[in-house]
Amino acid sequence: MNSMGFFEYLASRWDDLLELSIEHAQVVLVSLFIATVIGVSLGVLTYRRPAAAQVVLAVFSAILTIPSFALFGIVLSLPFMGLGYTPTVVALSAYAVLSILRNTITGLQSVDPAVTESAKGMGLSEWQVLFKIEMPLAWPVIIAGIRVSALLILGIAAIAAYVNGPGLGGDIFSGLSRIGGANSLNLVLGGVLGIVILALVFEVLFAVLGRLTTSRGLG
Q1: How far apart are CA 187 and CA 87, in angstroms?
Q2: Could you tell me how far CA 145 lies from the centroid of its own chain?
Q3: What is the DSSP letter of 215?
Q4: Which residues make Cβ contacts (< 8 Å) with residue 61, sequence separation at least 6?
Q5: First vs last Cα of the chain: how many Å apart?
Q6: What is the pTM of this model?
Q7: Per residue in 46-101, pLDDT tens?
Q8: Rounded to an integer, what distance in angstroms lies between the CA atom of residue 20 and that of residue 190?
Q9: d(CA 138, CA 213)
Q10: What is the average pLDDT score of the chain?
Q11: How far apart are CA 197 and CA 108, in angstroms?
């Protein structure tokens, strides 16, 4: 194949790039959903227990320090994991938990105790105080953590090509593996451009989601 200009390359492969971008976004969203369930659940269970909160934060901080290639390798070594979608979701979910967990704990701990005491004085149970008072007040901080995790794993998802994962990483790795060859740079630039555009789309979506789900007076 003869090398072509970048815009000519985009015009010839826009449908493939669109399909890869959708796959990339899907695997990030699934991983983010799993990480949100884990992070918010652990945050709710530990925010009133500082020692337990420090332990779970330390565990997921340690996971975040593992280099991406190494973490994908560790995930692959797990039984019945195989290649492709599943190890990608497991690794991305593990990376995404920390910001969500930390912001959940911080958000819930920052609620004014006088507010919760007043709610309890009105007869609300602890769970009612949590879901009717504390979670709505902490939500802007929690969704900020989800947004940070989303942007983090959008980039890391490209490395999932290492384990035959879906998305734009395949083009980037393919281009880098034959750099200097026809359209190798276009492959890399196309993949990177797709991830940048997805990051912008996610930013807009989280801004809209935050505005729609935050209680009036807190936004």
Answers
A1: 24
A2: 9
A3: P
A4: 98
A5: 53
A6: 0.89
A7: 999 999 999 999 999 999 999 988 888 888 888 777 788 899 999 999 999 999 99
A8: 11
A9: 12
A10: 90
A11: 33
